[in-house]
Design brief:
With 418 residues, the protein is an alpha/beta fold. Helices cover 26% and strands 28% of the residues. It contains 9 helices and 20 strands.
Length: 418
């Protein structure tokens, strides 16, 4: 495993929820000398690194001093991943089993979560206004699949009802209202009577690992999109040490997997507010934004050897072939020719290989935060991402070289004043 891939595995292991991903990002930024810019405090105009946190979203930047005409270079990713979120009243069960009520978060591959040992992670909100993290890092939950003897046709097509078939079990006996919160409060070291609400997610406990004869592949949960968050933090720290003639910015948004239309999502005002400050105010931002660029970074589909009919064979993305430039004629990806040229320049300057992904005409592609930011800000945006197999599965697969390629090219993009 490359050093960057090994560090990515560590980052993923520390980040079972968006809130934990933000905390790990802040830990790394603080270790590099970045200091917090609270949302409700006066703007710190001194030169140096800053970060700002709102819930599961983190922004970080390196500013040269008093905000002015310096162009912005933005690396945008997202901290959330598809899975299951615990419902407000979670205690349920049937037939002598204690279960946890969950709802689907994002477009998860449901079958990939069956018969896996799952933990729980997220945050508890207390009546006194405090918010405390919580993580149960041991087998706690399991979504049991129906035995083949009871469904002889299952291998001809598995059908799952999200209300009936995806409730995890966590014990035997009659469910009691409040018992899950009581258990989690004890794990977090708080009184359960103090807990007013919670945001909790299931996560796969299997750690990241290399795969294959030559160990050239990395199997891990939440590569979508913690691989990009990790690369963005790494790229920002690299660019910050260069005094590049730009203002390098990283943002890891929450809620991308559910559409981004939230106060801390890409469609919200947070990034625009920060970038306006960095540009020197509302009146000055028009000229700064016109000279700025954004790199929207989210994983892309690696060519699947068993389903090549789902790909455009002229635009295949192969693991360890470098990050892919993502192009779509109707702007589901925000890439245009000048933006593509800026990405290609960053790759050429650093010797990083790159590929181009275009979806097959008969298989509509997904989208990213890129078009949302381009529409909201008017900043030229280009979409890229490393190739991944089994996207939105509980466990995904990428090449061990690509995380390093992405971080190196990302740092060059953030540092390019042209």
């Amino acid at each position: 495993m490359t050093d960057v891939a090994r560090d990515l595995a560590s980052f993923i292991g520390a980040s079972p929820s968006p809130y934990h991903a933000v905390a790990e990002a802040v830990r790394r930024l603080s270790a590099a000398g970045f200091t917090e810019q609270p949302e409700d405090a006066p703007w710190n105009e001194a030169a140096g690194g800053r970060y700002l946190v709102r819930d599961g979203t983190v922004l970080a930047w390196w500013q040269p001093g008093v905000p002015g005409a310096t162009p912005l270079r933005i690396f945008a990713a997202h901290t959330d991943s598809p899975g299951f979120k615990v419902k407000p009243n979670p205690d349920t069960g049937a037939a002598g089993w204690r279960q946890v009520a969950v709802e689907v978060y994002g477009g998860a591959l449901w079958n990939s979560w069956l018969d896996r040992d799952l933990g729980l992670a997220g945050r508890l909100a207390l009546y006194d206004g405090r918010v405390v993290p919580v993580r149960v890092d041991r087998p706690l939950l399991r979504i049991p699949q129906l035995a083949v003897h009871l469904d002889r046709s299952v291998n001809q097509g598995l059908t799952l009802d999200s209300q009936r078939h995806l409730l995890p079990v966590w014990g035997i006996g009659r469910p009691t209202d409040g018992e899950l919160v009581e258990f989690l409060a004890a794990q977090a070291g708080v009184d359960p009577e103090d807990v007013a609400a919670h945001d909790l997610f299931t996560y796969d406990l299997t750690p990241a690992a290399t795969l294959g004869r030559d160990e050239e592949l990395l199997a891990a949960p939440r590569l979508d999109n913690l691989a990009s968050v990790h690369a963005g933090i790494t790229a920002l720290l690299d660019a910050a040490g260069r005094d590049p003639g730009t203002v390098p910015v990283f943002v890891g948004f929450d809620h991308e997997e559910i559409g981004s239309d939230t106060a801390s999502g890409a469609a919200g005002p947070l990034l625009e507010t920060v970038l306006t400050q960095l540009a020197g105010g509302f009146d000055a931002r028009r000229t700064v934004f016109a000279r700025s660029r954004c790199l929207s970074v989210d994983v892309t589909h690696a060519a699947h050897p068993n389903y090549l009919d789902r790909h455009d064979t002229g635009h295949l993305s192969i693991p360890n072939g470098g990050p892919s430039l993502k192009v779509n004629a109707v702007q589901r990806y925000a890439t245009d020719a000048p933006g593509a040229a800026a990405w290609q320049r960053a790759c050429r300057s650093t010797g990083v290989p790159t590929q181009t992904f275009v979806a097959r005409n008969t298989v509509p592609c997904g989208t990213t935060v890129g078009p949302i930011m381009a529409t909201r800000l008017g900043i030229r945006t280009v979409d890229v991402g490393i190739p991944v197999l089994s996207m939105h599965s509980a466990r995904e697969l990428c090449g061990v070289d690509d995380p390093g390629h992405l971080a190196v090219a990302g740092a060059e993009f953030l540092s390019d004043p042209a």
